[in-house]
Amino acid sequence: MNIKIIGVGKLKEKYFRAAIAEYAKRLSRFAKFEIVEVPDEKAPEKLSQAQMDQVMATEGERILAKIKPKEYVIALAIKGKERPSEVFAKEIADLSTYGHSDITFVIGGSLGLSPEVIERADDQLSFGQLTMPHQLMRVVLSEQIYRAFMINEGSPYHK
Ligand SMILES: C[S@@+](CC[C@H](N)C(=O)[O-])C[C@H]1O[C@@H](n2cnc3c(N)ncnc32)[C@H](O)[C@@H]1O
Fold it and tell me: Which is nearest to 80 in space by CA: 121, 109, 114, 116?
């Protein structure tokens, strides 16, 4: 199975990079795990709605350019569908069983994902109504993907 996370911008903090590296190492026995970073669009602090839409559209094009037609895309979205870790784990197992061996997760930049990316997504995953920083989201998602494999293996990691 190939699992890819597409994120916007480089992970700046050393401790976030260390956490991702740890989960990448742990996941390597289950899947080919890859993080793809697309450049963020530099923008001033204060933006009009039209400027924000433009930033999201540009970042969205960069995200879409990294997705192949065969990839099953799960967009991380606050308004997406919440589910317990056990359900998420079963969905990952089912995707693989039913021929989706390329799963791509997409995390938006500081303004979020463009409608075009949401449109391309096969599913939307929410971690609840709280807004998380996109860099931290990469770490949390990596842990949940690792947890999913541990659940599917029946490991006591998941209690
Ligand atoms: C800072 S948030 C963007 C906030 C923006 N207002 C929005 O609604 O998407 C950056 C990205 O992190 C992800 N994200 C943040 N919190 C999330 C949550 N609770 N559930 C799922 N994804 C989340 C989403 O992909 C989002 O596009």
Answer: 121
Ligand 1 interacting residues, C-beta cut-off 6 A: 76-78, 107-108, 110-113, 126-128, 130-134, 137
Domain that holds residue 79: 2-41+51-153
Instruction: Tell whether 158 is covered by a domain.
Output: no
CA of 75 from ligand 1 middle (Å) equals 10
Ligand 1: nearest atom to the Cα of 130: 19
Tens of pLDDT, residues 41-65 = 988 888 999 999 999 999 999 999 9
pTM: 0.97
For the chain, residues with pLDDT lower than 50 are none
CATH number at residue 32: 3.40.1280.10
Choosing from 78, 82, 130 the residue with most ligand 1 atoms within 8 A of its CB, the one to mutate for a pocket test is: 78
